[in-house]
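INFO batch 0412 | record 1 of 1 | parsing
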Amino acid sequence: MKEQVIINEVGLRDGLQNQPQHVSTDDKARLAAALIAAGVRYLEPVSFVHPKAVPQMADAAALTDRLPQRADLHYTALVPNLRGYEMARDKGYPTVGLVLSTTDTFNQRNLNMSLEQASESCERIIAAARADGVATRTYISGAFACPYDGPTPVDVTLALTRRMIEAGSDEIAIADTIGGGNPQQMKDIMAPLVQTYGPERFYVHLHDTRGLAGAMAWAACDLGIRRFDASVGGLGGCPFAPGATGNVATEDLAYLLSSAGFDTGIDLQALRAAVAIAEAATGQVLGGRILRWMASREAQGKTVCAP
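INFO prediction complete | emitting tokens
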């Protein structure tokens, strides 16, 4: 039996939050349905943030009501503060994602808080969630590099991770928010964390700005990480992180891991339908490298076999 790897689809949230073209709730619901039809079982579809800050997330509650509810589907909502947490809790989310950036500047731009204030805010949300029986995943944003202050010292990322674990965060997502990291940094960060806490509680969240997301994902996988964020078609970007481009494409990550012998549960052929919906909704040309390869094979009349 193949070892399972979880790919958490963040295209509906991280992928769409920075899109200049408004994406309707109908289109988001269609995209969610197509992703689920392709085998995606973990999704982060919304953020409960003020609509003036991120207009694309203004329909978070409405979209939540339209998501399929099944025992095999796992949803997470991103929450920037305690009010956002309460909204996600009241909509029934079993897991919430928190954001803690690695520098004062990034936290100020993202949350209008200092690093210490943001850390304390996360601790309050974690405490409230534990009391309510809601699981927490804390994103260490800018874990490799800050869009304003440059490369992030490894010790900073490790210290913030330790603080959030000690506060009771169930999971930690190590996030290369601007795609500024490299595989050696991944090893430098994840090796001590895995050694100290084990790999099971960690996610890795990657953007492919410089084309290194696949190599970084493999470096993390080699260290025992089996949970990754990805975005359909390579959608992505952060309104508070200048220079951040798309997340690692779900189809590229699924192909990488499947070809290495892991079970992602995702059907690449079926995922193409989701990419087409995302393209129509955003007005962008999307799709990871593996889809271009598949299309070229088909153009030559050759069979495309998924690993």
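INFO post-check: The beta strands are 6-9, 42-47, 74-78, 95-101, 135-141, 145-146, 150-151, 171-176, 202-206, 227-230.
INFO record closed
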